[in-house]
Every structure is written in structure tokens, then in C-alpha cells.
Amino acid sequence: MTQQSKIFPSVDAAVADIPDGASIMFGGFGGAGFPNNLIQGLARKGSKNLAVISNNCGTGEGELGILFKNRQIRRVTAAFPGPGATYFQEQFDKNEVELELVPQGILCERMRAHGAGIPAFFSPVGVGTDVAKNKEERVIRGRRCILEQSIGADYAFIKAFRADKLGNLVFRKGARNFNPVMATAAKTTIVEVEEIVEVGALDPEVIVTPFVFVHRMVVAKGLRYV
Amino acid sequence: MTQQSKIFPSVDAAVADIPDGASIMFGGFGGAGFPNNLIQGLARKGSKNLAVISNNCGTGEGELGILFKNRQIRRVTAAFPGPGATYFQEQFDKNEVELELVPQGILCERMRAHGAGIPAFFSPVGVGTDVAKNKEERVIRGRRCILEQSIGADYAFIKAFRADKLGNLVFRKGARNFNPVMATAAKTTIVEVEEIVEVGALDPEVIVTPFVFVHRMVVAKGLRYV
Amino acid sequence: MSKPRLTREQIAARAALELPDGACVNLGWGIPNLTAAYVPKGVTVYFHSENGVLGMGPRAAKGEEDFDLVDAMKVPVTLVPGASFFAQEDAHVMTRGGHLDVCILGGLQVSERGDLANWRVPGARGAGGIGGAMDIAVGARRLIVTMEHTSKDGARKIVKRCDYPLTALECVNTIVTDLAVIDVTSDGLSLREVAPGFTPEEIQSLTEAELHYSGKVPEMFAAKP
Amino acid sequence: MSKPRLTREQIAARAALELPDGACVNLGWGIPNLTAAYVPKGVTVYFHSENGVLGMGPRAAKGEEDFDLVDAMKVPVTLVPGASFFAQEDAHVMTRGGHLDVCILGGLQVSERGDLANWRVPGARGAGGIGGAMDIAVGARRLIVTMEHTSKDGARKIVKRCDYPLTALECVNTIVTDLAVIDVTSDGLSLREVAPGFTPEEIQSLTEAELHYSGKVPEMFAAKP
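^ Those are the sequences you sent over. The predicted structure of the assembly is below.
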């Protein structure tokens, strides 16, 4: 019973309760590993005023693009919004969306810290740059550092290749990217996955995300925007 | 040529240059994943005045025990010295060896931080306990935390199950434990491994420690102290 | 007080009833480790170990031990379907990050506000050892402490304020002893159950901290020996 | 100055000569990304990508693309033997933690003390984007910047002090441009090579920061177009 309860019958069911104002992380990088079915479901659901965390801000209407087009996003934390993020860029230029630009590795690390119960850390990345603005600076063992805060979210939308019925996940090649770390950093992690196999069918040595980090799953054929 | 140069002909050759006063991390937990052949080699080599980092402090003469018996260790950072660490305990009671006792997860995290270029972090673990002594305390988003420093070493001695000739590593079951994180945190990581296979023989999806973290390898049949 | 108290195994068996179906659970050394044997039928629990295993099954049968697959007490174990291996630092992402549903640790002292001391007896010889206890105590979603209610020499272990070296502050949710089940609440200690044959007043007399209770306090489950 | 400078491909080909055999290397967008095609015969280099790949091979042939296997520019690539996949945060353990031998980034400005500005043109429309550049610049054991020596409108890009938004302070080791190879030393900028047909004085006139050189400065390698 416990084992079945994570599997949702449809993408729409998996995102049916996302409220206005929710914070959501989205996996994906370079066109690979985006939870595009979940994103489309969220577009249909229409939740507004979202605070999102994602490496980039979509490509045309693809990936996060549709959520910007629908004006569902109030604030975004990203490392590289991207030249193809036309809807985001348009709203950014008009001050209609708030952006926190974060170095990509630090974005990963802030999420990992949240998942790992580490509220803050000192890092040399961004010292002396715009990124250091309003951050505490301190020299640690001779190295200038700034204090970075961990970052979590209400939801993580991620894409995995294969899951077992418990929620253990494996990924495929470069589509792994941000997905595993986001799974650790959200209160509710929702996974779209190509295939769900029986418990025990995945080799315990190769599971990348243990099921403890996974709360909802839905099977969906991968959607890609190139 | 580059590919072959990491493979050493013998355990003794792999540890031949460890100087007196070196800092060394040792993998292993619960009898599994200890680099016991390298430890025996270091005992034969006889380097003294070592500062070591290890979850525990040996079991009789096994694991780190032989190095304590030989009085090669000046200082140890550990989470759980262990009731079987007779040589360590004897020297500890006489103030002949220095101990820094660290919560196990924080020990991992401090090593990971070093490997990840994060000089320090705030953690709630140990607040209000002996572990907090002489550490800066700060409330972060409502939670009391203490500042922990990253920790690295000159060498990591680790045990893997299988390597390819480049140094990509896979581990076996619970013998993985501290080994991968230590590989990231030392200037020189030395691996004893049951078997070295051709480059390309390990599935890129299941490699746990990429070769960039591995500097020396030696094939040795696993030694275990139960 | 010569009435029989619960055995260590009975404490473990009672603690096992606190585990919800599907829970991910870490067990400390000693009595907590015994809990694994008493998970009720129909309840599936996934045991986590700090060395990087989620989904440990029962101890390995004689002759079938794999010494690369051990629990945190170094005992060879088995795996249940759905188990996974990972590195020690990731095992502690789970402990410290609040991803485990229930953790059970042993205790030397627990205070009325839920402070735990469990890693060192003051004045004892030797270095002591923290192991994973501090990370676990800080991060557990729900922390249960199992221990004898009083020490071998009769000292009370549930106290107003711990004077043993602390493991973590305000971390304990429930205490299961050989005499009682006690919840730590924002109002102090609430006596939920007493061992068969004991009265709340008897339990209070063996407890330094004040226990809250009213009316008849139910009896603890005591497994058949 | 109408003498021919090196092309972008020739800059990349010259930068490729800086890669030692066996090196683990990260390439940024633009000219750096072109470098992969020019690694000298007999030299094996392992390309790293921030999305969690070490050991990227050449671009995938038409019809053989796997869009789960892309580089940081979203281009489908192949793998070399010994490649591995890992998560993005682990990819940045490698960048920030100093585990990559050489990183090559593009540049908008480099200062005489090795400060780099490469992610945003002041006053340009749009949000800009940092990507992995700051982690890479801070952590690279050796950082090479490849860029045109002057901007399209003739502005000098090797400056006393960057006035564009910075990527990282004192991070650049070597600058490879269409006119010169310059090392950043503790004494300032050292002109190591000049483009064929150019004199050190001509390079200095196109460089705001002072260049150190003495005697005859060797010519840069300029790959056949």
C-alpha cells in the first residue's frame, strides 16, 4: 500500500494541488532532463505567483518558457536564463519578473546544503563581483569568501529515466544534471519517469536517488525541446 | 603513458614516499572498505608523526591498530575511536596521542567541503555540546549553528572494489562508506583495488569516483579484520 | 522496587510499535538495534545505516555473511528489495537533512525539554565516541530514545537537566524505557504508558523530571519473553 | 592596423597547445569550445562538462545524436573510453574544488592582475547569465582566457582594471588572443608570443595594461586555415 501510493495516475493528478505562491525547483540542463510533462501539467493547472529555481528560463515556449508566457512566475533563481528564454527576457526587461542570478555551482551547492541540513556556507565564488552584494564577506584561512544561504523549495519537479515502485531512481547520461540534488532539497519531490519497474529490479549499487527523496511519480514519455 | 602511470607495481612502492608528519585519511567503516594492504605497507615504511583522519582507530592490530601499536600516529581526527581500538585507547589514556572527536556526518561534510572548494559551513550538529567548544556560534534563520572548517589531507588511503586503468572506481556494498569523499579531499589519493580492468570496461553510469580524484593505484587482495 | 521491569528485548519490542508503515528508520547501538527484530507483521520498515545502506534486512544467516554488507554495529546483514547503497556523506544527508522518518537512539540521560546525553559517561576511562549520534539526533523527524529507566546503581536518567556530555539539545520526542513510554511535549514530559504492574506514582518516584499525567495511564505492551 | 589577425579557429588551435597530455579540461562557450577540435595528435585530453560528464568526445555525427548527451552548449557529443556521468553538484566539486587541470573561458576584459570579466556587457539589454563561469574561474588549477585582443569597435580588452562586471578576481593564468599569448605573473603581464607579422610594440599599443617583454618575442603558432 505504502509502495503504491507514490504513483499518480496522470501528470495532471500529480500537480493538481500546487497552490499559487508555491516555490518549485525544476531539473534540466542543455535540453536534457527537463520535467517537461510536469511543466505542461503545471501550465494547464495555472498556479500563479510562483517562485521558481532552475538553471535556465526556458527556450521559446519549451521547458520553463510556457510558464513565463502564461505569467505564472513571479520570481526566478537561475544561473543562466539563456538567450532562448524569450518570454522571460521580455518580462525581465519590463521589470515584470524578479531574477536572482546565482553561479551555477553555488546554486547546486545551496540546494545540496538545504537537503543536507547545512543552513549556510562560506565560498570564494563570486567574491568581488555583483554576486557578493549584500553578502557577508570573511577571510577564511587566507581566502576571501562570502556567506551563501541554503535554498529549499516546496516542490521539486524532476525527470528521471527509470524508477522502481518505491521511488528509487536512475537517470540517463547528461539528463541526470540538477535532478538528484533538487530531489533532496524540496518538501515534495515529483518525478516524471519513462518507466516504473518492480521493486528489486534496480541494482542497489547503481541507484542514484534513493526512494527516501521521492514523494510522487508519474510515467510520461519524455518530451524534448531542441 | 598517462594512463599507465597511476598503477604502482606494489603496495610498498605506492607508499614509499610518505614522509614523517604527513596527514592521511583512511577509508573504512564497520570492518568493510579499509585499505588494509596500504596500512600494512605504511607500517612497514614506518613514517612517523602522522596526523590521521579516520572514522575509528583500529581493532586490535587490525585496520589502523598497527599504526598506533608502532607509535606512528601523533594526532587523530575520528568520530568513533571504538572499543576495540586498544592501542589507541592505551595511548589516549596516557596523553600520548591527540584526539579530535567529530560527529560522523560532520566529518564527512568537512571532507566533502574541502574537496568541493567550500572553506567552512554552519551546521546545527553539536550545538550546546562539547563539540561546540571554541567554535563560533550563530543563529541562522532561527536555528542555532556552529561554524565548521573544511578538512583536507596530504594523502587519502582508500579501498575500492574495481578500477579501470585510468582510475575510475566502483565500490562494493557497504564498503563504499568514507572512501569516495576522502578521494576528493586529499592532494594524493592512493587506492588499493581488487582488480584493474581496461579503460571502457566500466559503465559510465555506475562509476562512483571519476578518475580525476585518483592518483595512485595498486592491486591487492582485500584484507579484512573481523 | 523488586517488581519485574521490561527486558531490553521488551523495550525494543515496544519501541517497534512506534514505527509507521513505510517508514525509513535508523537504529543506534544497543537496545535500538534490537528493535529491527520486532517490527509488527504487516508493517514494512526500511532500515538505514550510516555507512550507506537504505533497506537493510535481517541479520545474515551463519555461513551466508557478506562482510562488505554490515550494519553500523559491524553485524553482517541482508537487503530487502528496493535497497540501495550510497556513500557515507550521502547517508548523513539523510540523517541531518531530516529525510528519515524515525530514528531510535540509546540514552544515558534525557532532560525534561528533550535534551539527550548518550555518548560518554563523565569520568569513564577512554575517549568515548560520538559516531553518527549527533547528526541523527539533530536531523531525525522523530527521535525515540530507548533505555533503562534508571542506571545500574539506581540513578535516575530522566532528569530536569542533563549533567552528562550532551548529544543534542531539544531533540527527543519519545522515551521508551523498561518502565514507561513518555512523550516530550512543549509543556514538559507526558506519561503515556506505564509498565504492567506499575503505577504512575511509582514511575514518577524513579524520574527526576516532573511527569504529567491524569486519570488512568494505560499499560505498556510487554512482549512475551 | 589592417594586417590579418588570427581567426577564432586559430586562437582555439593555439590554446589547444597549452593542454598537457592526460589533462582534465573544461571549455566555456565560444572560442574555448572550438579548442576541442585542435588537440594535438598524441595528446589525450578528457573534456569535462558542468552537466556531469567527464570524457566527452567529438560532436556526434548527424543522425547519431543522443540529446541526453550534450555539452554545456547543448550540442550532442560522444564519449571517449573511460568517461563517466555524475550529477551537476559533483561536476562543480570538480570545478570549484580545484580538480580540473585546465579550464578555458571566453573573456570580455582581463586585467593586468588577472581579474576576469566575461558574463555581461554593461548596458546591454537582458539579464545576462553567469552559468558555471564563476565556479570554474575560482577553482581552475590553470585558467586560460581566449578572446579577440580588441572589441569589434576597437576597444582594448586587456586593461589595467576591469570596468565590466567581474567573473572572478586574480584568476587568469594565460590569455590567448588573435594577436598574442600573454601570461599573468606576479609582476604583471608577460608577453610570451606575438601573432605572425606583429611586433611587441604593436601589441602593446592595442593593450591598455603594460606588457613585459625583452629581446625578440617568438611568433604564435597560427594553424593553417
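Chain A touches chain B at residues 109, 113, 116-125, 140-141, 143, 145, 149, 170, 172-173, 204-206 (CB under 8 Å). DSSP finds six helices and eleven strands in chain A.

Shout if you want it in another format.
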